[in-house]
């Protein structure tokens, strides 16, 4: 493959194009099989990654969905604003904006609507006509915003595990996903019944013992529950079993959690690499009302997830206010996160009327047992987007493109535009 690095200046606030500018980095990937003289004629495909707060992928070879896409496209991989080599937004840089109120006001410009308008600035600067976007997870949310805010910039859209609800409070999301996470817990413990008492044993031990993560802070029972993120994977789910099987070691003063276990848990429960995920996660659902820690409030309806339950379940993709007390990377952002959770004047992310009249070819994969993006809410959204073609499958979970990205991409591309000629 060949790569080209790009750096673009975009307005912080697209409503004030003459105001402050920030930078957005992107890396272009092209299959080496394409002659250099033909590259300029290849159409662009922009990948919108999951998150929020995740940088674009760094790859050393074209495989999976990128291998399939690179046959006909130039791939543009963005570091969405605030991430990677774009102008950063984290606990070290945000204090330069001022106090928590100034930081929250700044981060209000880091949602899907701003990411879409960044894409339009970039598209025009590259001299591209309407292009193809491929949105995974939160990237699919961005694709829906693109169809709402700037459909003239799109040739087609492909979405995997990323059909967001178009309206309604964030509580809708968590009422649906808590139920799916509970079902996934039950499925997992059906496969590995000995892991049910092992999880309870780890939780009880953490309640009584002072076990420290490699970063120095105490591992609490509720933070350990975050390893449930592995339940959202088709094959990663088995990693949870391997994690648990050597959790304990015997010291001179009794059982302890092993260093290897604690090191692995740390990689699953720290938000140091993607702090924006924790700070903005509920805001990706907010339209015209405050989220007010929706996942935390809905937890009251699901006592089986409480760490003091008799057999507590593992959590999925829920952000709680105690994140900002227990994760050292997030502690400096606690007040900023609180202000964002209390923000009520969020603008719209989607235009239901424009989506109902959509003319852009769209195809989306809906994963039947997805614990992060609920099937029912996804199908509800699909029914409100004119011409959106759905492929519903139980063969994959949220990380489907990690399992068979090549096959999934090829199928959706054909569904989005069955009459497409190669290279078109």
UniProtKB/TrEMBL annotation:
Question: Which GO molecular function annotations are given, in alphabetical order?
Answer: aminopeptidase activity
**Highest rank taxon of the organism:** Bacteria
Every copy of the AB hydrolase-1 domain together lies at 43-169
Keyword presence, Hydrolase: yes
- Write down the SUPFAM superfamilies for this protein, in alphabetical order: alpha/beta-Hydrolases (SSF53474)
Q: Which InterPro entries match?
A: AB_hydrolase_1, AB_hydrolase_fold, Peptidase_S33, Serine_prot/Carboxylest_S33
Q: What's an example GO BP annotation here?
A: proteolysis
The alphabetized UniProt keywords are:
Hydrolase
> Which Pfam families does this chain map to?
Abhydrolase_1 (PF00561)
Q: Name the family.
A: Belongs to the peptidase S33 family.
Q: What is this protein called?
A: Alpha/beta hydrolase
């Amino acid at each position: 493959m060949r790569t080209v690095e790009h750096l673009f200046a975009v307005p912080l606030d697209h409503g004030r194009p003459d105001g402050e500018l920030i930078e957005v980095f992107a890396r272009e990937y092209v299959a080496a099989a394409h002659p250099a003289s033909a590259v300029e004629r290849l159409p662009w495909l922009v990948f919108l990654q999951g998150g929020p707060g995740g940088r674009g992928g760094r790859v050393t070879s074209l495989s999976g969905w990128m291998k399939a896409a690179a046959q006909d496209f130039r791939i543009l991989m963005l570091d969405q604003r605030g991430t990677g080599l774009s102008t950063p937004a984290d606990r070290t840089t945000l204090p330069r904006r001022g106090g928590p109120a100034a930081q929250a006001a700044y981060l209000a410009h880091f949602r899907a609507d701003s990411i879409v308008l960044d894409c339009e600035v970039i598209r025009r600067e590259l001299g591209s006509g309407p292009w193809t976007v491929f949105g995974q997870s939160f990237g699919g949310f961005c694709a829906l915003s693109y169809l709402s805010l700037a459909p003239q910039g799109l040739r087609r859209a492909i979405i995997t595990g990323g059909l967001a609800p178009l309206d309604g409070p964030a509580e809708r999301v968590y009422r649906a996903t808590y139920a799916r996470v509970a079902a996934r817990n039950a499925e997992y413990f059906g496969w590995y019944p000995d892991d049910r008492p092992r999880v309870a044993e780890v939780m009880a031990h953490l309640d009584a013992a002072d076990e420290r993560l490699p970063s120095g802070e105490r591992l609490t029972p509720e933070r350990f529950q975050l390893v449930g993120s592995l339940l959202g994977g088709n094959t990663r789910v088995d990693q949870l079993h391997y994690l648990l099987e050597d959790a304990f070691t015997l010291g001179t003063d009794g059982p302890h959690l092993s260093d290897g276990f604690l090191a692995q848990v740390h990689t699953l429960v720290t938000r140091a690499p993607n702090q924006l995920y924790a700070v903005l996660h509920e805001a990706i659902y907010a339209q015209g009302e405050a989220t007010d820690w929706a996942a935390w409030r809905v937890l009251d309806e699901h006592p089986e997830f409480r760490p003091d339950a008799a057999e507590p379940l593992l959590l999925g993709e829920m952000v709680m206010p105690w994140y900002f007390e227990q994760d050292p990377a997030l502690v400096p952002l606690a007040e900023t996160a609180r202000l964002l959770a209390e923000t009520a004047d969020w603008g719209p992310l989607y235009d239901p009327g424009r989506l109902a009249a959509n003319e852009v070819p769209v195809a989306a994969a809906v994963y039947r047992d997805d614990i992060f993006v609920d099937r029912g809410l996804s199908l509800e959204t699909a029914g409100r987007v004119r011409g959106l073609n759905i492929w519903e499958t139980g063969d994959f979970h949220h990380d489907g493109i990690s399992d068979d990205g090549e096959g999934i991409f090829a199928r959706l591309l054909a569904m989005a535009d069955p009459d497409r000629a190669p290279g078109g």
